[in-house]
Structure formats: C-alpha cells, structure tokens
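User: Show me sequence and structure for the first protein, then do the same for the second.

Assistant: Starting with the first protein.
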Amino acid sequence: MIYLEPVTLGWRPLMLSWINTLPEILSANHRDFIIEFFEFVVDPILEFVRKNCKVSQCMVYWYSSSWETRLRATEHHLP
C-alpha cells in the first residue's frame, strides 16, 4: 500500500469518488455538469486563496480535508 497525503492527491480524486456515491436518480448529464462546475470553480478559488490569503501549512491540510465536508454538505441539496 502506498500512502499519499491529501495535498499531494489534490481535490479531484475526492470529488470523483463523491460523484460515484450520488443517487442514481441523477443522470450522467447531471453528473457531468457537477464535475464541470467543480472544475470551473475550485481551482480559481484555491489559486485566489494561495495568492491573496495568508495560509499556514496546517491550513493547507484543512483545505484538503474540508473539501470532503463541503461535498457531503452538497448532498443535502440533491433530490
């Protein structure tokens, strides 16, 4: 087994894993839209934070782990 820190993996594998847990009622088009939305929004947000905010190393780990929390919170807004 190989262990990689969440920062090394990035947010995409977590998002794709989460997509696979969504209810089957969501069509492939819905899933594609969600993926495209995250692709469009997340990297610019992270870049803005890196450039404009004072971020400690512990906050980098928090950002990575908090994405899972954000994804789980999003589930409550789905049918």
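Switching to the second protein now.
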Amino acid sequence: MTNVIDGKQFFNIYFLFPVLIPMKELKFLSLDTYDRVWKRLDKKPEGAKKGDFKHVAAEFMYTQEDVWELEKELRTSGSGSPSRQLLDGLETRRPELTVLEMVKVLQKPNIQRDDIVKLLNDYICR
C-alpha cells in the first residue's frame, strides 16, 4: 500500500504493522473502535475489582490528583467519561503511544481487560 504526498510515494508502515498505529490516530481511523474502548474502560468488568480507567491511569504515571480530576468529569457533567478524558490526555502526555503498548498495559495482571484487547485486536486484524 502506498500513499502519495507532493507527488512522492511512500510506503504506509501501518499497513504492514498495524499495532504501530499511534493510539491518537485510532479515533481518526476508527471512531467506533475508539468509542467502544473508552466506554468499556469507564467500568470495571462485572464482578471484578480491577481494570477500569483508574488502573490504566496509574500505569501511565497519573497522580492520584489527576485521577480525581478524571473522576470529577464523570460526577460534574453526568455524561462525561473519565476514560475518554484519559485517552485524550494520553495524546498529549504520550503522543507516541501505540496500540501495541496500550494492549500490553491492558493485559497487565492488575488490569486484565481482555475484552478491550479483543476490540483492538479485531480492529487491527480485520
């Protein structure tokens, strides 16, 4: 697969290695997948005591105060999403964060969000 910019062709590396897609590009490439990720991350899996946005934020070195700000989004607006705020914040804090890196975080023992990993995997392997 090639793209043309200013009359020059270059090889789209994401075609060969889709896990290298930056997370910030995911919402532009598949808004549906991006939305499904943050909606699921807002809640812990049924019966689980771990795996929501707080645990992911901790993996990315968010302070407790940062997490409180994310939670405040949910409480004050009623329809806000702390996970969406987290993903948007990661675009600034970690612009180079790839889908693969996010998958590795979601698979950590203190998070174990295989449901979200499957969403990302289904998008990548389509």
